[in-house]
Amino acid sequence: MTDLLADGGFGCSVDLELRVDTVAETETTPVEEPSVTADVPAASGFARFGLGSELLQALAAIGYEEPSPIQAAAIPELLLGRDLVGQAQTGTGKTAAFALPMLAALDREQRKPQVLVLAPTRELALQVAEAFNSYSTHLSGVRTLAIYGGADFRDQIHHLKRGVQIVVGTPGRVMDHMRQGTLDLSALRTLVLDEADEMLRMGFIDDVEWVLEQLPKQRQVVLFSATMPAEIRRISQKYLSSPAEITIRQKAADAGRIRQRFLTVNAPQKLAALERVLEAEGGEGVIIFARTKAITLTIAESLERHGHDVAVLNGDVPQAQRERTIDRLRSGQVDVLVATDVAARGLDVERIGLVVNYDVPFDSEAYVHRIGRTGRAGRSGEAILFLTPRERRFLHGLERAVGRPIEAMEVPSNATINQNRLDRLRQRLTAGLQTPATNAEERALLSEIVQRVAQEQGCSSEALALAALELSLAGRPLLLQAEETFTVPRQAPGQAERQGGARPVRGERERASRPPEGNMERFRIELGWRDRVKPGNIVGAIANETGLNGKSIGRIQIFDTHSMVDLPQGMPPEVFEGLRQLRVLNKPLQISRVQA
Ligand code: AMP
Question: How far is the CA of 68 from the centre of ligand 1 (A)?
Fold first, then answer.
């Protein structure tokens, strides 16, 4: 048994433990020593496995340069025809680890299924089939078919009759086809059980065993599983013969690639906090994880109201629609996917830049799974976890599971969001200048309008440009002025303050929700931290204007772009009018009454 610390080749570090079965070692140990992963020269890539040029060409085209640790360890074993047990999660490159050797050994003349992959979900089955397709682009005559429940049975039979060498399917549907005699496994060479622990968890294990029982005696069995529960061990002992065993432990959940943060927010404020997080942090694709179907719908509705293109993936969404949803996310037609854990399992979309754990996951394994939806294929990713004050106690367990601290963050303020909006507008304007969205003919018409309006109105080109920019806002306010009442709850007594941990948001030393005292009335003024206003400035200006004693001016709360001040009830109209004209720090106070 050899323990290695190898670079994952995806920019992540993994512990690789390769156990080569001693009984079969003379003939079946890989040509290179197991330390192969650590010592391979960088340039050798996949060529060293002796894969054909068609496969190498396809890999080069999709950008695989170096094998990942599981590929380095498993491909030589599988090319030798050995059975194999691989303990590895999605994201380690396990699909190519079995697909490449299967394709290399395929008899393309033979039209009967030679490879059968069983996968727990339709999504995974489709992904695996797609992977086979992409690796076999240059191999003529290779046919791969995904078969799963919920899709048209006759259509699948039609494809099976035409002849396929590789079948990827969910256990139930595969069993149905076998029973009906529409899936002939007499020429089967290899069975792959992908995510075996998931199949166990989802109750498919009897079906899997039934399929195993029906296979030809001479066959290769490959089993991949993220965890190794006793039941999976039993299956592997019963049906696999002297398997090579490979364990890839993903260290710290791709620690290097995923920036993990948490924010503490009271339950009723989660939707508003989410909206802010998306404005400030969302860019490419976003997946939001919620605990129940009902919550996915609530979130989606709220985000839609705020102008996001949202899709939902939960157990109620019919299969055909799920596939379309994932395709829409992949192609960028929607940017935000709201999902439950089960529906999003195995989901592999490269353009996910942010995962939001809107509801805290049930266990640390689910957390690791969820955040693994970002940082795919060597990209970097962001993960943000929402915790209510009571859920803060789960943080430590999650940090232990990922092997690193999860940073605290605050709900993005108006100032941050507004700065983002301005930046985005500038970028859009620049992009619009560089790449016009209209053709020459349309541009000529637009130009005519610009000239005509300029002439009619006698205005400068800057004034015209400003008017056009304002039009582009389509009635939406440029700046967010909303209340910033995200009071971050204080630490529980006796709990050590975390470094960088939750602090009250700037300017929110007082709860805005606390009503004004007895005979006071609340007023809003349009100056905040951003204008560098201090309580002293406000007290001074109001006392001067109204003749009020500084002491009778009540609580002052300063937010990013505005402030609240409590003043004695019954202010005479002319005094109020005077205040309305007032300027502080050379800016209009714009005082208004806050309706109780
Ligand atoms: P998997 O664990 O098979 O789901 O693969 C995770 C992701 O890594 C997929 O997007 C693969 O396309 C990608 N991938 C697999 N092998 C490699 C490799 N050797 N180099 C770069 N990306 C890879």
Answer: 8
Q: What are the start-end ranges of the H helices in 282-413?
A: 293-305, 319-331, 341-344, 364-371, 395-402
CA of 180 to the centre of ligand 1 (A): 35
At 568 the three-state DSSP class reads strand
Tokens of 418: 């507004």
Predicted confidence (pLDDT) at residue 11 exceeds the cutoff of 90 = no
Please report the pLDDT score of residue 441 as a whole number: 92
For the CA of 348, the nearest atom of ligand 1 = 10
Q: Is 250 close to ligand 1, i.e. is its CB under 6 Å away?
A: no
Q: From ligand 1's centre to the CA of 11, what distance in Å?
A: 12
Query: What ligand 1 atom has the least distance to the C-alpha of 377?
Result: 8
Nearest-CA residue for ligand 1 atom 14 is 93
Asked if 269 contacts 376 with a C-beta cutoff of 8 angstroms, the reply is no
Per-residue pLDDT at 328? 87
> Domain 252-415 belongs to what topology?
Rossmann fold (3.40.50)
CA 91 – ligand 1 centroid, Å: 6
Nearest CA to ligand 1 atom 13: 377
Whole-number pLDDT of residue 132: 97
Q: Name, in order, each residue with C-beta under 8 angstroms of 21's C-beta and a sequence gap of 6 or more.
A: 28, 242, 243, 244, 245
- DSSP 3-state of 396: helix
The answer to whether 169 touches 117, Cβ cutoff 8 Å, is yes
> 67 CB under 6 A from ligand 1?
yes
| Neighbouring C-alpha atoms within 13 Å toward the C-beta of 413 | 17
Tell me the longest C-alpha to C-alpha distance in the chain.
Answer: 100
Instruction: Using the mean position of ligand 1's atoms as its centre, give its distance from the Cα of residue 589 in Å.
Output: 57
The rounded percent of the chain whose pLDDT value lies above 90 is 39
Q: Is the pTM of this model over 0.90?
A: no
Find the 377 Cα to ligand 1 centroid distance in Å: 6
Architecture of domain 13-30+67-247 in CATH?
3-Layer(aba) Sandwich (3.40)
Under a CB-based contact definition with an 8 Å cutoff, are residues 360 and 386 in contact? Answer: yes
Per CATH, 13-30+67-247 and 252-415 having the same topology is answered yes
Predicted local distance difference test score (pLDDT) of residue 355: 92
Inter-residue contact 372 to 364 (CB < 8 Å)? no
> What is the band of 103 on the pLDDT scale with cuts at 50, 70, 90?
very high
Class of domain 513-593: alpha beta
Q: Count the alpha carbons within 13 Å of 241 in the hemisphere toward its beta carbon.
A: 10
Domains of the chain by residue range: 13-30+67-247, 252-415, 513-593
Residue 87's nearest CA partner among 233, 238, 239, 237 is: 233
Residue 93 Cβ contacting ligand 1 at under 6 Å: yes
Residue with the smallest CA separation from ligand 1 atom 18 is 64
Please give the torsion angle defined by the CA atoms of residues 130, 132, 136 and 141, in that order, rounded to the nearest 10 degrees: -100
Confidence of residue 396 (pLDDT cuts 50, 70, 90): confident
